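tool_log.txt
---
The assistant was asked to compare two proteins side by side. It first ran the structure predictor on the initial sequence, then on the second. Raw inputs and outputs are pasted verbatim so the downstream comparison step can read them without reformatting.
(1)
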Amino acid sequence: MRPKLMDSHSALGTIASYAANRISFHLDLRGPSLVVESACSSSLVALHQACESLHRGRVEMAVAGGASLLLAPAEFVSTAHARMLSRRGRCQTFSAAADGYVRGEGGGLVVLKRLADAQRDGDRIHAHRYQQRRSHTWHLGTDARAQQTLLEQVYRRAGVDPSDLLYVEAHGTGTPVGDPIECRALGMTLGSARGAGDALPIGSVKTNVGHLEGAAGIAGLLKAILVLRHGVIPASLHGTPLNEAIDFAALGLDPVSALRPVQVGARSTVGVNSFGAGGSNAHVVLAPPPPGAGAGAPEGHGIVPVVVSARTRDALVEAVARMGRRLDGLDEADFSDLAATSALRRDRHARCAVVLANTARQAADRLRALARYSPDVRAGAGARTVERGKVAFAFSGNGAQWAGMGADLLERDPVFTAAVARVDALLTPRLGWSVERDRGRPSPGALPRRRSRSRCCSPCRWPRCRCWPSGGSGRRRWWGTASGKSLRPGPQGRSIWRRHVT
């Protein structure tokens, strides 16, 4: 950064050590908050440090990961002078044409707990860390024997048989020097121990997303978790023709060049390599969660909005189609998270579409119907967005009530239930019947006589208004007709409903 552009905030925005502290502050996390710097193995070494803290009982939960952003030219210049970058713009791991890597952007975080604690808390467990270890090799990591020693220690201490490995995510930068050394260590330790006809599948996510440098380890870890979850190894790209300097057959290694299904069992494991340019290397062994442990079945989330946004109408149609395809293959346990992300964590563009659904399949069907402008979709809408829009609430008079109105909220919303009890105490002496007691009547014939029906709506509407602030929706504009006018705020911002019913 040029000195003339620096100000009092420059240090907070550029010093790497503040990154972890900012996350801790934002999430209100208490305990150690630090940045680990070991070059390209930083995120996996950070994972190791977090697991050690959990193992020693220093913390009950940890968040570990890494991120990489390409914000300045200095690293490009230095790595280009060192001839680390690919002239072709491809990470060609295990290929005879490998000539360096491509720098990439990205990041990831994982939440870590001891297995017993996660099972006790009912958390959804994505994978179980079998063993992890880090070691130090020579500068630039050119010692195959040191890498081999690291792997031997990890698998011996974990008690994992190499034949149980489904896959190993290699560091695999796609350099003429690094790939042969890593493959030699993997083959001598793991591949050759598996026997003839059972070559160890290997690959590298760098061929798909580039080299994320400090975040490279967490990218490989997330890929390994997905292999265990879906039972499929993604293809590593740009790997042919294979490097003739690596005898894959003799080493018992098999680069995965096409999508490959695998059978995930109770003893299955996946390994992840991550090497630092200074010589700090890490390896982790993952296993699927124990059967029935931490299934993480979510509580009923009810109907939630799924929001899709784009800059133009055509782009919105395409975005809706993509979201539909994403929802088709979504685990129902992830639906509420996806819906929350779509509504709260995505930019709003000029065009917006939203549907209400309580399952991923229902949301996908309604989005597709909305894209076709089907008149059958009543639980969805598409419109232009506004930059500073305000929320307005409209309330009708008699005729909006139905048998059982508000019964579901009485069962699951404590704010609504408390407000109904307050209203009921005012109305019961005047109506001669209890709004709270009769709210759940199933048949239309259970509704009170016509003269009292207009008073059925306000006892539901006013408590509903009490729920909105608790859900983060402040009052903006009000409009009502007939008894709906009773919800209009008075001069002091208070509802005139109580005066209306008395």
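(2)
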Amino acid sequence: MAQVIIRHWLNNSKMQSKYYIIDILINGFRGMPSFHKMMNDEQMAAVTQYVVSDLNGYTDTVTAEDVAKLRHSNPSAGDPSDD
């Protein structure tokens, strides 16, 4: 499972958007669970920064405030890829 997730996140032009990655962490994606209740804003920002910079070489800075912009009270019960 982890290899599938990592492959999806490597060399994927969608990873240039920090908000795309944050949305996946908050809501889950294609079998990946939501981390909405498992991670705080700082932790999600750190993971997102790793994916943006270290895995994909983009230079955007990710902050806890970026995560807070997308966080909501109740994560979706469905998979956002089903929409």
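---
observation on (2): Residues 53 and 80 are 24 Å apart (CA to CA). The radius of gyration is 12 Å.
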